[in-house]
Design a protein that fits this description.
Blueprint: E1 9-12, H1 15-24, E2 28-33, E3 39-44, E4 47-53, E5 65-70, H2 73-88, E6 98-104, E7 110-115, E8 121-126, H3 141-155, H4 159-172, H5 178-194, H6 198-210, H7 215-220, H8 222-233
Helix pairs in contact: 3-4, 3-5, 4-5, 5-6, 5-8, 6-8
Length: 236
């Protein structure tokens, strides 16, 4: 049978908090009930999410994950980011909820992730992308380290281990191309923000800015630099 539709139902601790978060992403609440059990539905075009509460639910312990395939992951990220900035006064990039910028992790498709107030992961990727199982040629070992760190930090949410990988890579590959070094430091700043380490975040961002890049290289990492600067400046 063709044309089936699958809709995720995700747990949360506070229904109204989760509804407000999805509304910031551009969703519209289409249904809400309090009895016999708290339940709501939010929709954004053909993107539908059902929400329900569980007594004593801890978002930190949530394992729920939804894979979402969209025509343009980067465009959707920008729309989500605009809404979150307007609702939160900054881009939430640490803790719960948070949004992680688009990137391609080692062996995965390009995309980004959103963690909602219930600790549920929305893993969003571009329609038609496939995982590349072949090892790409790298100009340096540090570039591979960045990819591996991103898989740990973004895909698995283990920013501490990702930070350890980056620190080891920066210490080992001291002769890496300057562009790779700047990218590693910018991602290190992101990870430090997630860990709440303002000193490390500021130091890493300053280190990336101090790398002597050509104008073309600066253009190549302009979006990464803008993102790192925004979230470091937005730390509480």
């Amino acid at each position: 049978m063709a044309n089936e539709v699958t809709i995720p139902a995700l747990p949360c601790r506070d229904l109204d908090v989760s509804i407000a978060f999805y509304e910031a992403l551009g969703f519209v609440r289409t249904f809400r009930q309090q009895r016999p059990n708290p339940y709501a539905v939010v929709s954004r075009d053909d993107f539908h999410v059902h929400l329900f509460t569980i007594d004593g639910f801890d978002p930190e312990q949530s394992y729920a994950t939804v894979i979402v395939v969209v025509p343009d992951a980067d465009e959707l990220y920008e729309a989500f980011a605009r809404g979150l900035r307007a609702a939160y006064g900054k881009l939430p990039s640490a803790g719960i909820p948070r949004i992680l910028r688009p990137r391609k992790k080692e062996g995965t498709v390009r995309g980004f992730s959103v963690v909602d107030p219930g600790g549920n992961w929305l893993r969003i990727s571009k329609h038609g992308d496939t995982e590349d199982k072949k090892t790409e040629d790298r100009s340096s070992g540090l570039a591979r380290v960045i990819d591996n760190a991103a898989r740990q930090g973004d895909a698995r949410g283990d920013h501490s281990f990702a930070l350890k990988l980056l620190d080891n890579g920066l210490a080992k590959f001291t002769d890496a191309p300057l562009l790779d070094r700047a990218r590693a430091l910018l991602y290190r700043a992101e990870l430090a923000v997630r860990g709440g380490d303002r000193s490390a975040a500021t130091e890493s961002l300053a280190g990336a800015l101090a790398v002597d890049l050509s104008e073309a290289e600066k253009d190549a990492i302009s979006s990464e630099l803008a993102h790192a600067t925004e979230i470091v400046d937005g730390m509480d």
